[in-house]
UniProtKB/TrEMBL annotation:
It catalyses: Endonucleolytic cleavage of DNA to give random double-stranded fragments with terminal 5'-phosphates, ATP is simultaneously hydrolyzed. Belongs to the HsdR family. This is Type I restriction enzyme endonuclease subunit. GO terms for biological process: DNA restriction-modification system. GO terms for molecular function: ATP binding; DNA binding; type I site-specific deoxyribonuclease activity.
Amino acid sequence: MNAALRWLASLGWRHRPAAEAARWRSGPNDVLLRPRLIQALQAHRFEYRGERYPLSAGGIDQVVREVEGLSLADGLLAANERFYRLLTLGVTVTEFMPDGKKHQPTVPLVDWEAPDTNQWDAVESPELHTTIGAHPRRPGVLGYVNGLPLVVIEGPASGGHPRAAPVHEAIQRQLHHQRPDETPGLFVYAQLLLALGSGEARYATTGTPPRAWARWREEPGDGTGSNEPERTVRALLRPERLLELLRHFVLFDRRLGKVIARPHQYFGVRAMLQRIQQRRPDGARQGGVLWHTTGSGKSLTMVFLARALVFHPDTQACRVLVVTDRLDLEDQLARNFTNGGAFGSAVAAKKDGEKARVGSGRELARRIGRGSERIVFTLVHKFTTATQRPECYNPSADIVALVDEGHRSHGGQLHERLRRVLPRAACLAFTGTPLLKEEKTSQRFGPIVHAYSLQRAVDDGTVVPLLYEERVPEMGVDDDAANHWFNRISAGLTPEQTAELKGRYTSRRAVYGAPQRIELIAWDIAQHFERHVKRLGLKGQVATASKLDAIRYHRCLEATGLVSSAVIMSPPDNGEGHDAIDDQGRLEVQRWWDAHVGRDAQAHEHRVLRDFSGDGGPELLIVVDRLLTGFDEPRNAVLYIDKPLKAHNLIQAVARVNRPHEAKRHGLLVDYRGILRELDSALRDYQNLEARTQGGYELDDVAGLYRPVSAEYRQLPALHAALRALFDEVRDPSDLEQYRQALMPRFVDSGSGQGLDAQQQRRDAFYAALRRFTQCLQTAEASRSFFDDPQVSEQAIATYRAERRFFNGLRRIAQGDAQETEDRSDSGPEHLRHAAGPRWQRLAVREPEGAYLLTPPARTDAPERWSPEKARNEADLVRARLRKTIQVALADDPYAQTVFADRLKQAVAQTQALFDQPLKQYMLLVRLEDQVAARTVDGLPGALADHPLARAYCGICRLVLGEEAFARTPPDAWARQALSIDAVVGRAMVEHSLNPHNIGFVIRQALLPELFALMGLEHAREVIERVVEVARVRMERACR
């Protein structure tokens, strides 16, 4: 972390060694630098009747009490949200003024407008203690602003090789330290978290899941710095940038949790703010278009902009009118604005969002002409009736209209009405797919102010890439039978009637909507989904051309018994759908609607979407037009297309499956209509448009919308070769033991007494290579074209499948040998999984996590029959298992842990002398493993033989006092004391199981008097802290 400290120092932060910062903290559980906070408060001045006054000692104490008194009883995120309100809104105190009156100024914790007046301290590796027990933790670097730890930076682990440290290890440490039994008190205050790896960096905030940690991309260019970690630190931790981010670009959402803006949102809002401040000759504010690709969080960007308008001095007087064209979008935006603090406070009440919504055109007219509301939500269609009322006019230039999806319904007369009643308003359009024809969007709203391309979104991990596969069904026609049938039903008709009848039955609608065709495709969809998507816990959509097709698909899919489905569409009298249907079809739709939806369509849709976002059914949503735009569900992974789509409608639809999810590497488009030509055409149009934006992006920036499945499975030869290359030293490819030996743990001494597994990085490389190969093969097997491709032979497919079986079996063996219960081949978010590479020189320290197989497997083989290679592998396996057992299973018995750790060192030294006799090595280690399993240690009272926990507490006393002092007290006295400690701990754990933070306090309070009499204050405190640590371990195991 020395490099991070150097970068911070160059930005104006002052390096504070941990020892210096410790003098400003009241103890290892205190994370604030209280004197630094008080110093900053003493410098603050508030105004009263034209005079400036300092805070009194009582006022400063009120602020400090508010900041220190944040409880974790409601959870970490709730406490962090309370502190964020204090940070951004300030603390109101009571001051008694010289004139005898009471005054209540609001005191800011930081000076937002003048960053240099704040105190910027960077503390290196301060020691913090866990909430249960006194287990030490040392975060990499803490960034303090006025004594408040607002920034936490984690880098390469201590003892690890900094050039080979993947960034996901730093992320995992950040998440681990937020656990309730770790150091959550630090993250009550932390606002920006950084994870630095070897050449990579990610940032997030408190509570951010691994998949949502983002890479910072500075605009324009790459920013200053020789590598990504340096550029990230310099970009985000410049004092003025950090304060701007924390004040304007952090929000709390009830669904997403705490959110910090991504780079495209930050720079997009800044570009919009600059645009709004520009004026036209008539004094009106300038407008423009923000084009951020679908799925990149436009609604949150609108919230960030609305909040920035509140605080910016040039726009504080502006009113905000949020315009959209769909009720569900209005619901979503109102919810996001309420949760995100766009109403001028960190959190607004639900009623604030409801009051901001317009119920009728009459009400919209009143609010436009005479209203004073800060934010108003309306549907664009309400302008039709609103503009007919005389009061519906406002020439103010301090109105900002935020128009969501500005390409869809805001054209023609509706758009003209909006501009007529708000002639000087700044109209800002937010869209993922601007209307291309004659660039109407930019003509109406102004130029594209900021763009975030499809390819950049994929590169950043904001969205996942899309794979396209065409599965147009082949349907034969029996010409003789068709002609005979047609001649029979047309007998007696006039030539004109015959021609009309023939046209009806040969129309596109008749062909694509034929029941036999829908049944055929439904079976294909059901089988594909059941085999390749369902087992991942993901969902899908079926896009159909008409309501009648949707209903028929639903019936056919349900008849397969393989998947569950539901239909979401507008009421029968609504003109939704591409294909017209006849009277009989409309009657069928009406009957289905009455039977399945009834009168409350909104409740039906809400219920279906709620279930779709959960683990159960429906697994497929069948839609016509609804939910092909503005529908964001991360589980949605595959779109089956059986309808014509063009231009922006096509790009909007396919983007329904590009939201990131832990189980989703890509979104899949399965085309039954042959829309590939339209897709390519739409992409070329958007390439040309993006080239004309102010960002000046390359023409191929949009090319990342999709790629054919063949581009994915043709990576298989290279991925297979990379997997095989990890085992170049294996002499006999048929000998499993040689592969196993290549991955077997190898522990070396780190110099600090802690064993380091030199093979960990190699196993990580194997897991990553196997995961990439396996996932690519799974994608290939889900594609019909893989098996039809003449470049892929049947022998190659058989080889790939055999290799997958072999290496997955090897993976399970390697994980068992290393005592790794986590499936490292499939864990972690996609944009983090590629961090590990074949750099085998790294030495990794792994903290124990999860549950381990600590009981040795039954020994059924006859060791004397083993080959030397097999015996050596088994000896290495027992050695690794012993290390893990002593480290993890004996964590609740420090004395036994110490005894057996010494015995293991002796055994390892003896095995080194038996290098050429692996069978004797194995037998020596097996005998020690049997002793560890029985926990047979000497020197403790025999009366505790049936009381393992009391025996552990007695062992702690022996460790702390030493052999000589321990022997001065009779064994029966130690037995009674150990049983007493066991009773105290057991009672505390039972009585405070719902609030484990109190367990340590209760144990200390009960044990200190009796242990003080037995061994003195210093030894008593050390014994108690070790007892509390054992209680923490027991509590962790009980919660698993």
